[in-house]
Amino acid sequence: MGRNGNLWLVNKQKLWVNPRYKRSSMYLNSTDSQSKMLDGAPSQSQNKSSIEDQLNDLNADKSKPLFKPNQQNKPLIPNNFISDFALKLYGMNVLKFEELNSFDDRNYHITVDPVIKNAYIKDFNKTGYVLKVLNLKDSKTPGLIEAQHAILKHLRMKKFPVQEFVQNIEGKMWSLQGVTKESKEVDGPYIFYMLKYMEGDIAISKPYIPATLFNIGKFVGRLQVALEDFDDAFLRERNFQWNLAECPRILDFVFALKSKEDAQLVNVIIKEFIEEVKPVLCQLRKVLIHGDLNENNILLKEGCDQSSVPQETRHCDVIGIIDFLDMNNSYTIADLAILIAHMSTECKCMDPLDSGGHIIAGYLTERKLTTSEIDILRTLICCRISNVVVMSGYTLTMDPGNKYILSYIERYKPLLWKYWNTSKAELHERWKTILKEYGMNHLYMVKKW
């Protein structure tokens, strides 16, 4: 990759810098008539105009509040306040607590005294509870908590292993609380709520072997089927930073990336999304999706009768799924893309690019894919990884010492380049080869939906 004036070169293709977005938005123009990416695309001037217009529309849309640059969003909660809030809101005496990793919120696994002064808690949960504090932006939309409660109830009725809300001492599912600092200033207010803690090993703690990836894909297919008859007015209208269908909005945060090459790549990927994905969105299936099927939100347990099998080759079953805070009304293929993007990390027993083949094989046992969905899947995977890398970089500007966020950049940035440097045709051939091992001959099962 080299630089020449205002042009960057990526895979021998020139990139134009839009003056309006010169800090973050750089768009791809090819001088190679054989370029696959721009084959059959409009002329250079038409391309610029079309993409600028769409990004200007995004920038002008103020009707739906989104996270803005330079905004402190994560709750500021001193550790000594956790026990106080648990007692005040839930009548629980905390014996110990541990903060769990999170991008935007605060999550605490708390262990409490069995004697709880709360008339609404009938059964003591021996594994503990999770006290959750929503970020500043989401705390302004309590409809998100009401929707989460409804969707967890819906899934439990369908026998899905998900968490259960805990009522506070007033019998409510959530409460809005300010956090008073030593200076007497009040941070927040933030939404506090509680869930029963679910036991299980998060996916990242287990080897990503083919059988485990197949089981995860199958579980997610079942999850989407279970959500087909669920609806929620708030989620239907929800628009937020991590919505994959709105990924061009991450251009507002590309400035946070230290590497100009990485920032440039993100801009190229967003351009491909606008050119290749947006025109076909109207053809795709939509339901209320989980929205954050990452390696920390899927709970696993080793399958039975594997005591004689080496630890690194033991397969796991899915025993739970957590964190529904990124729920939104979106395209089913987006959830699959998010899943493949996250489960492509930490693949030590196979090439990360092959993980998608095993996941898709499991998924296809429960749901079918269309040709349009398969055609845009690689781009959506790249968009999700771009979102993770960009927002991780931005979060580090607010919290430079956050090792959890830093680990995301270190793991996902090489993965982004790996996916981008693999053509769609090559990726599909890899997946087709894997599907044949499961007796499947196609990546898709129906041509239209």
From TrEMBL:
<protein>
    <recommendedName>
        <fullName>Hydroxylysine kinase</fullName>
        <ecNumber>2.7.1.81</ecNumber>
    </recommendedName>
</protein>
<feature type="domain" description="Aminoglycoside phosphotransferase">
    <location>
        <begin position="128"/>
        <end position="343"/>
    </location>
</feature>
<dbReference type="GO" id="GO:0047992">
    <property type="term" value="F:hydroxylysine kinase activity"/>
</dbReference>
<comment type="similarity">
    <text>Belongs to the aminoglycoside phosphotransferase family.</text>
</comment>
<keyword id="KW-0963">Cytoplasm</keyword>
<feature type="region of interest" description="Disordered">
    <location>
        <begin position="32"/>
        <end position="51"/>
    </location>
</feature>
<comment type="function">
    <text>Catalyzes the GTP-dependent phosphorylation of 5-hydroxy-L-lysine.</text>
</comment>
<dbReference type="InterPro" id="IPR011009">
    <property type="entry name" value="Kinase-like_dom_sf"/>
</dbReference>
<keyword id="KW-0418">Kinase</keyword>
<dbReference type="InterPro" id="IPR002575">
    <property type="entry name" value="Aminoglycoside_PTrfase"/>
</dbReference>
<dbReference type="GO" id="GO:0005737">
    <property type="term" value="C:cytoplasm"/>
</dbReference>
<dbReference type="Pfam" id="PF01636">
    <property type="entry name" value="APH"/>
</dbReference>
<keyword id="KW-0808">Transferase</keyword>
<dbReference type="InterPro" id="IPR050249">
    <property type="entry name" value="Pseudomonas-type_ThrB"/>
</dbReference>
